[in-house]
Amino acid sequence: MAQRRSLIALGAGIAAAALALTACTPGTSDAGPGGDPSGKGVLKIASIPNYQSSLPQIVEAFEKEHPDIDVQLEFVDVAALHTQLRTQLAAGTAPDIFTTYPGNGTPTAMENLVPGGFLADMSDLGFSARIPKAMDQTTSMDGKRYVLPLSLGAIGGIYNETALAEVGLTAPTTWTEVLKFCSDAKAKGKVAYAYGAQTAWNNQLFAFPLSATLVYGKGSTFTADQAEGSATFADSAWTEVWKKVVEMQKAGCWQPEPLGTSYEVATGLVAKGDALAISSVTSTFAALAAAAPKGTTFAFHALPATDDPDETYISAGGSGGYSINAKAKNPVAAKLFMEYLGSDAVMAEVARLQNALPAIDSDAFETPASLKEIMPFVESGRIHPFDDQLWPNAKVATVLMEQAQLLVGGQSSVDQVLKEMDAAYSG
Q1: What is the dihedral of CA 327, 331, 333, 337, to 10 degrees?
Q2: What is the pLDDT of residues 281-312, one digit of tens each?
Q3: Nearest-CA neighbor of 427 among 402, 401, 404, 398?
Q4: Using an 8 Å Cβ cutoff, are 371 and 209 in contact?
Q5: Whole-angstrom Cα distance, residue 339 to residue 148?
Q6: What is the pLDDT of residues 220-231, one digit of tens each?
Q7: Taking 90 as the threshold, does the pLDDT of residue 411 lie above it?
Q8: Which stretches of 37-132 are DSSP H helices?
Q9: Burial class of residue 91 (count of CB atoms within 10 Å of its CB; 0-12, 13-18, 19+)
């Protein structure tokens, strides 16, 4: 692997999975122009940084089982990947495997790439039939599978449990408690929620969990109504979503100058205990653990939007998605790696290393205490996919993030945010 890192050895379960997959090498018809029918040679993979704590280890184990395949793994910032990957796909120079997003809503989401013929059909790979039916809508199109999600991600509060215990506070379960938590944290000399607003994608991380309850909660028909043209962001509970974001700002829930704070700095504040929590995706656990003092514990708790805990929904769905380039230079190796990645043992190991839940149920995985609160929401159906996965284009999420930054900076208003989101949705 290019740029070797210090890697831990994976368990015997993964080795066994790899050996089983060795016999599944695709036929010679999969070899691309100039490609070796055995998959021998270079395999290029581009991933977002969220998976730096797991993919290098997985690649190391894969290469041990396939010594003739040289995996070149590159990590690219989310925003940069959107631009870089689209350019590479158009030029025919994209990696063999790369991060994609389920559904719609981002430039590298499935529904934006499939029409251009950029993604390979993975329906014939073993993991496809094991992906939960609930994820079909965001990982398949026209009956063909294009995305393998690695994790069942959720967005909500990730709390430094060690720091909470030190100051005698607990995670809130109602909206009133959220605001009190913010004032109590400040009284203890702490930040309640670190907010890395400088990093564009972080500006979804309060809106999405709040909208899961307020907009898309029990009995909601908003998504269908909006698609039919009978509902808009401006005339819906999205107004309450943004009002609550503003309310959190006025309540001093964040550190000073969130617009000058990056994701890395925000996670550092929580890891060190200067901030008690962060509203983020569950893949952030890995970054927190890496930067925290030994023995620090973290846990996910839903971010409530009302004063009735039974009304709370969480924003959750497939994340860490990967796809095969339809014009991969080494399609045989790409399929071998994706089969390996989607195996029971490897899915469990990725989830363990990421402190996440596997997107595909795995007998090899035991839910850690830090994520146990997610399971009752999943089991009771009180989850809503990440909002942008069901929006009709990537512009809506981009506008949401831009307007959220302006709102926090006092350069926009709730009405303006909603107006711009509606224009993006219809455009």
Answers
A1: 80
A2: 988 988 899 999 999 999 999 999 999 999 99
A3: 398
A4: no
A5: 10
A6: 999 999 999 999
A7: yes
A8: 55-65, 78-91, 110-113
A9: exposed
